[in-house]
Amino acid sequence: MNKKGFTLAEILGVVVIISLLSIIIIPPVINKIRNNEEKSLEIQNELIYSATDEYVSDNKDQFNTQTNACISVQTLIDEGKLANSTSITGENLKNKKVMITLQGGRIISHQLTDNC
């Protein structure tokens, strides 16, 4: 007998195997992507906070008597402390601000926010 095609059982077998592989492989890949995005955001925030620290250090006289201050990301870019205003998510950071808490002229906390 001349066999020219696949039987229904063979096709179903291949579909089942591909489905099982998808069920096993896709969730860990998605979790890895999410974890990498979170890590990238943390690193991005650390870069912004480091630029803020450098800016405050360069302008100590302006921040010596303050306990709270707000510095825009645009200011950090204009001062050459940050090179890029686009986050890894594609969000424009120019409108973001870094709210800092100071004690004795030293930064004790940072927070990236929309408003201060």
**Strand percentage, roughly?**
15-25%
Helices and strands, in order, run as: HHEHEE
Distance between the termini: 80 Å
Q: What is the number of strand segments?
A: 3
Q: Which strand order do you get reading across the main beta sheet?
A: 1-2-3
Mind summarizing the main beta sheet? 3 strands, antiparallel
- Helical amount: 40-55%
- Tell me the overall shape: rod-shaped
Q: List unreliable stretches of 5+ residues.
A: none
Average pLDDT rating: 87
Please give the structural blueprint.
Blueprint: H1 8-58, H2 60-63, E1 68-72, H3 73-78, E2 97-103, E3 106-113
Antiparallel strand pairs: 1-2, 2-3
Outline the structure in words.
There is one protein chain. This protein has 116 residues and is of the alpha+beta class. The protein has one domain. The protein contains 3 helices and 3 strands. It has helices at residues 8-58, 60-63, 73-78; strands at residues 68-72, 97-103, 106-113. The protein starts with 7 loop residues before the first helix and ends with a strand.
Summarize the structure.
By secondary structure, the protein is an alpha+beta fold. The protein is 53% helix and 17% strand. The protein has one domain.
